[in-house]
Amino acid sequence: MAESLSVLLVGHGSRDPRSAAALRDLRDRVAVSVTAEACLRDEPAPRVELAFLELSQPLLEDVLAQLTGEVIVVPLLLATAFHAREDLPGRVGAALADRVDLHARISPVLGPHPLLDAAVAARAQALRAAGHDSIILLGTGSSHESANAEAAQVAERLGFALEVPVVAAFVTRGPDVEAAVAAVGLRGARNPGVVPWFLAPGLLLDAGLRRAAELGIEAAGDTLAADSRIVDLVCTRIAREHSALTPVP
């Protein structure tokens, strides 16, 4: 490509420093994949940056101000809610309004995608191997019903694959852990386990896991950003947008 290419991964941000650290680690692993030509075959390999929408540094606008050429923006968001629908595209558009030296394409969010489902399934299967007879998929919760519905659809697909009850629960908005326990109980389950529907650790996840622990419910280990499948998923998002930027011979 004639213009320089950058990749900008954009996370939500958190007051919990573990969240930014997990996404920096994800950025580093994506950068290795890009350099190894797992995502693209450009020479030289694009730089891979990380920014946040709020609460963590650096902020989106600050990183965009340092870039020129073409940038592929990949939202590190699991579902399409306010930040993906309005906040991110609006802020990217505003940052580029007076820029003739920078052009951006924004990829879809991470979900839905088979690689994301597979990362969730791996955690659920570990709980099943430990003797749990059902799964609670624990997410943040959103005022956008469609975002909560996406988590519920992941739970439905997971339940079909594992042939056990799987129900979505949310920390802030939507059915909570208690409601999910009741829901799987109505289907005969007595020993649910929790799989975090979170990309990175944070205060909201801690709150949800504390409530689950109070109910005697075990949770799976790592959040999703630690899974190698998420690196592969980010690479698919990068490659898709890159193909739209690359002229067809």
TrEMBL record:
Protein name, UniProt field: Putative ferrochelatase
Keywords noted in UniProt: Lyase, Metal-binding
InterPro entries according to UniProt: CbiX-like, Sirohydro_Cobaltochel/CbiX
Pfam families documented for this protein: CbiX (PF01903)
Molecular function GO terms recorded: lyase activity; metal ion binding
